[in-house]
Amino acid sequence: MKLDQVDFSILRELVEDSSQSVKEIAAKVSLSVTPVHDRIKKLEANGYIKGYTAIVDAEKLGYGFTTYMQIKLIKHQEEIFNKFKEEILSFEEVTEAAFTSGDYDVIMKLLLRDLHHYEEFILRKISKLDIIDSVKSSFIFKYIKNDNRVMNVITLTTI
């Protein structure tokens, strides 16, 4: 499926506010409801739209302590990577995790209540993994920008 400007406009609208009705989106992209509905269904069917979600304020729920953790594993072996991945997937505090290049093998984003919760996470989970060589953490004290909306980066001319 090749996207056009209308598809991009629809995607932008959904990223900005996925609770909008098709009628509201149609008015903003200057089309009638049926073509917009059909385009949204095609975007979903072709995997451009993975789902719809609410953006929750974690701090209001008592989870205002965000930490980025870099981890160096003891060896670069497939079984080590797989074991690490298996363990990390069970840690509810980890909201993002990725294998990386550079001095560390993994970077993870943690959502925690406070410094005490961070200490518990290190002692009860990370320190028990014998495949970890070292850990480096950075605590977020204030965001400059925190926007994961992909449509703010991608334009029709960049793909």
From TrEMBL:
CDD domains: HTH_ARSR. GO terms for cellular component: cytosol. Keywords: DNA-binding, Transcription, Transcription regulation. GO terms for molecular function: sequence-specific DNA binding. Residues 3-64 form the HTH asnC-type domain. One of its GO terms (biological process) is regulation of DNA-templated transcription. InterPro entries: ArsR-like_HTH, AsnC-type_HTH_dom, Dimeric_a/b-barrel, Tscrpt_reg_AsnC-like, Tscrpt_reg_AsnC/Lrp_C, WH-like_DNA-bd_sf, WH_DNA-bd_sf. PANTHER family: LEUCINE-RESPONSIVE REGULATORY PROTEIN, TRANSCRIPTIONAL REGULATOR AZLB. This is Lrp/AsnC family transcriptional regulator. It comes from Riemerella anatipestifer.
